[in-house]
Each structure stands twice: as C-alpha cells, then as structure tokens.
Design a protein that fits this description.
The chain is α/β, with parallel strands linked by helices. 30% of the residues lie in helices and 16% in strands.
Length: 270
C-alpha cells in the first residue's frame, strides 16, 4: 500500500506556511478551513457524546490496528445501518485514538482538539435533506450522486464520474470512511466503485463491522428508537489485497471482510 506524505493545503502563500505551526490557516482539498472543521467536530461531538455512553453503550474493538496508521491514504470500509449515527461514532473513535485512547471514548477530552483529517462518503440527496445534514456535511462529507438509487427508489442514471476523483483527493489528505454497499439495507451488494478506488489509490484498507445502530436509532440516526442498546464497532486488521486484482475479486474480499455475505438460511434456491 502507498504511504506517501499527506498533502498540505493552506490559505497562506507557500513561503508563510511554516509560520502556521498550530494550523490556524490550514484547509482541506475542497477549500474548507480545518480550524473551523475542528470546532464543528468538537461541538457536534459534545452534543452527541451521551448518545453513545449514557443512553446507549458503545463497545469498541480493534483500535490497536489504528494506532500506527499513516495520517493519510487510509480507507475504512464498513457495513451501514443509519445515515449519520455510524459516521459520528467513527469520528469519536478516530479522535480518541489520536489522543492515545484504546477501545474507548471515555473521557471525552479528545474533543478539546479533535482530528480534522476525516472524511466520509455520503449520497448528495442525504446531505441536502435539511439544516442538520447540511451542517454535518461541513464535517467532511464527500458527496456523490448515486446512479442506482434516489429518494428511496431504484433508478438508473449516469455514474458520477467525478466521485472517485474526490475520494482519492480526500485520501491524499487524510482518512476516509466509506460504506461500499451504498445503502443501509443489510446484505446489499458491494458497489464496484469501491474496487476502482482501491485500484486507483492503493490505500490501506481497514474493514469495520458495526451492529446495534439500526436498533438504537431511526434510519437517519438522529432520533432514538430504542435506548439502552448495545452498540458495537469492530475494527479488523488491514485487508490484504493486490491493486492488480480484478474488480470482482476485490468486491468479494470486501464483502467477506465486512461480513455481508448472505447467510445460508436467507438464501432461496431456484
């Protein structure tokens, strides 16, 4: 896997970059201020913290696999259960790991200076569905137009040809969370676009398996559905793959890694 130095962006002219030793004038590849992004992540972190520690219990496993990762070109591939609660939990965990915590988000001191080089892939229509989603989008959303689904309906439209380019730019700057099924439905097929990203950027791939979010929250992940639910986020060892593999081979590996192979009892025989 490629471990290049992360890209650096600043609002300052290049000769003055080194003077910005605390990152006040840093920006992301899309022109957003990292300082403002940190403030936003901190505020949303404090607002959502008790959803994972008091109203529900979050069990975290495998953050030892995150401790020595490079600051960029890492992609987290996970199954998906709600629009926002999953991603917010990931951001809490990433920030706590930055501060040296292992498998816990207690206490939330990591929100004093959170990790800002985080991104997540999300459907454009989801991020434009109200004020809160638009605010969440500023926290690192890479918005893509889904070619197979829109407004809860199956559709067929042109593939968003710029989506992979934006994801690769985000990978060059930090960590990216992606849900390769592109939907919150369990056991949905893995979209081949994820395989193309692996072949293009050759990132370190961390598979993630989550559970409990669908029971605890509504589909958007904003409202409680059932409190005192056990939530779990399990990080697995980096996925071994070769960028020269076929797309189908990569898709099969991803499906197995995030444990989304259809159980035998759910199969129907023709």
């Amino acid at each position: 896997m490629d471990c290049k130095p992360p890209t650096q962006y600043s609002f300052l002219p290049k000769p003055l970059n080194k003077l910005d030793f605390i990152g006040l004038f840093e920006k992301d590849p899309f022109g957003n201020s990292l300082f403002i992004k940190r403030i936003l992540i901190a505020v949303l972190g404090w607002v959502t913290y008790f959803r994972y520690t008091l109203y529900n219990k979050l069990k975290i496993e495998g953050t030892e696999y995150l401790e020595n990762l490079p600051v960029s070109n890492v992609i987290f591939l996970s199954n998906h259960q709600t629009y926002f609660a999953d991603v917010i939990a990931f951001f809490h965990i990433f920030c706590s790991v930055k501060w040296g915590f292992r498998n816990t988000i207690v206490p939330p001191v990591y929100l004093l200076w959170p990790r800002a080089r985080n991104y997540y892939v999300a459907a454009s229509e989801t991020m434009k569905g109200g004020l809160l989603p638009r605010i969440f989008a500023l926290g690192g959303a890479i918005q893509v137009e889904r070619s197979w689904r829109a407004k809860g309906q199956d559709v067929r439209r042109e593939v968003d040809s710029t989506a992979n380019e934006r994801i690769v730019r985000a990978l060059e700057h930090g960590w990216v969370v992606s849900f390769p099924q592109g939907t919150t439905s369990p056991y949905a097929p893995i979209r081949k676009g994820t395989g193309h990203i692996l072949k293009t950027a050759n990132p370190i791939v961390i598979p993630v398996v989550i559970n409990g979010f669908r029971r605890a929250f509504d589909k958007k992940g904003l409202r409680f559905k059932k409190r005192n639910t056990q939530l779990s986020v399990r990080f697995k060892p980096p996925l071994e793959y070769d960028a020269d593999e076929s797309i189908d081979s990569l898709v099969d590996k991803i499906r197995e890694a995030i444990e989304q192979e259809l159980p035998k009892e759910k199969m129907t025989w023709l």
